[in-house]
């Protein structure tokens, strides 16, 4: 089987994530995409994550429930510590070494791959799928060739452009605005039921929300 790993903070998961998962799966003929919510992000302050790991996991589970080829794994949450992608992929691959593995992330993140932990080791374990928007300048990835032995394991996939971000969703929630159709309906209902992202005490008055991809 060909399996995709789609990691992220998912704070919250939104339709942009779902579109990337579906279109990458279709383009590469993947049998399954596993969404892996991060517990403690290694590259950002833990305080920048607005919902708890368990709440974010529940939102992802609600989002993927209607797609039999989407699943969720709590491997990063259960470790109780920050995990790098190379560790996540190693664990999942060790569970099922017979599968062919793909690691899905945005092209902008891939452009910073040289700053990741053991990037060549990561590329040995899984093909890196760089999800791009239409018109994305792929020359932004050219500088990686001289720094990576496994540069040929990076595969760009163009996905539909959807200008939705978790930051923007949280901002709308703080302003009391609707997020209907920006997130899966089951996710919207769960956010409402749990009272997430409203009156966020972690955000000081006037402090801008930090931008992030996932």
Content-based structural category: alpha/beta
The profile of the biggest β sheet is:
6 strands, parallel
- Helicity, as a percent range: 25-40%
Question: What proportion strand?
Answer: 15-25%
Number of helices: 8
Notes on the structure:
With 214 residues, the chain is α/β, with parallel strands linked by helices. Helix content is 34%, strand content 16%. The protein has helices spanning 15-28, 53-64, 75-79, 85-95, 107-110, 119-125, 166-174, 185-194, and strands spanning 2-8, 32-37, 70-72, 100-106, 127-132, 154-158. The relative contact order is 0.20.
Which key features would you list for this structure?
disordered C terminus, 8 helices, 214 residues, 6-stranded parallel sheet, Rossmann fold, alpha/beta, globular
Protein topology:
Elements: E1 2-8, H1 15-28, E2 32-37, H2 53-64, E3 70-72, H3 75-79, H4 85-95, E4 100-106, H5 107-110, H6 119-125, E5 127-132, E6 154-158, H7 166-174, H8 185-194
Parallel strand pairs: 1-2, 1-4, 2-3, 4-5, 5-6
Helix pairs in contact: 2-8, 4-6
